[in-house]
């Protein structure tokens, strides 16, 4: 059973009308005083009015719908209108875009294929203390469903090019009001169909017995699971199918961002840039306090929180590329290197700024900073399809320019110098993941929709090989950028980076 696209649109339109209707009495008000009725309720009401064999279909009334059934395991528009607009399944992304992603994936696969995607599992920090749950990226990209204990199966039966060329089954936790009373709500099987547009919503607890039905007739099973139990269950369920990895196909799709995805990354970038600029206005003497300030400001400025454990490194600690202890004191004459980013709707931004905590650059700090900034601007300007370059080629161009700049500042750049002073790549793809679409090469020509970072850096060891006034300094400047045909779209432009702009922040 497939939900025709027209039905999907009808459901969405119906819900939009229900929500927009001013002063419409809300029978659900006893349970959710400030919320308009959900799609779920709207469709139930519709069903109740359709005669079946001359009788009204049996339907539960509002009085019998438990509070747990009106709550979901993640924000939906009806319960969190401050987070999601009508029609959005996750922040910034419409339900329809998720359908299109599944359709695009199966269009890359041969007939008689089944894609099997297990959700991420909850990770424990110690004992019963768990980390915040984060959905597996491909699962999230294709379903928008943000809960653990779930399995998505997307099937392709024939090679039609239609909008609905696939089947979508979502196995998840069935509603359990007593358990949800303890753990908080989850979405349940009805929501798998009505909210997440699965053709079928089944209990994850019955997965093993359902697998033969789910992959029956498939000649190819696409999965990246490392769960050996699931792999052997799949082999048992359909011994003649060949099991193949799916990530090269999901990478092809995920590497090129849609306008809605770029808008999410812009929202994340704006929150990040504004927070950085605000942080630069203040004197900081503790890495930990600066880190906590950004954590709070990211959310205050419209993000959902930190996308990754940040680097907040005072002075020479910036020379440790992935320093994340973030607990030392910062001296007033030092610079601080901060690599941090907010996320929005699970889309990330990745930003680095380096600035003097006093608010004023010394001459040596300014010289080295401007050398890196010049190279960073060169790299950003090349993030356009018309330049016909790969990330690897942009790396080589920026490495060469940085070498020239450092030579002008008196560095001996012979031999292995650049490998020490600039030991990492100038950029990587960004998206749902910080190092997005793992396995997707940096030798691919940049095209509109690619989103990348440009982040040259200089890390001067504290030894006699290098000019004395630069020793121990670490500077990296990084923006997240969407590639367009004729120019870059800098997603993180609110984070100031010119010397005069950073210094002017203290004049206000
Ligand atoms: Mn980065």
TrEMBL record:
Q: Which GO terms describe its biological process?
A: proteolysis
Report the residue ranges that make up the Aminopeptidase P N-terminal domain in this protein: 93-231
Q: GO cellular component annotations, sorted alphabetically?
A: mitochondrion
Known role: Catalyzes the removal of a penultimate prolyl residue from the N-termini of peptides.
Superkingdom of origin organism: Eukaryota
Q: Which EC number applies?
A: 3.4.11.9
Q: Which cofactor does it need?
A: Mn(2+)
Please provide the record's keywords in A-Z order. Aminopeptidase, Hydrolase, Manganese, Metal-binding, Metalloprotease, Protease
Q: What is the catalytic activity of this protein?
A: Release of any N-terminal amino acid, including proline, that is linked to proline, even from a dipeptide or tripeptide
Q: What is the protein name given in its UniProt record?
A: Xaa-Pro aminopeptidase
Q: Is NADP among the key words of this record?
A: no
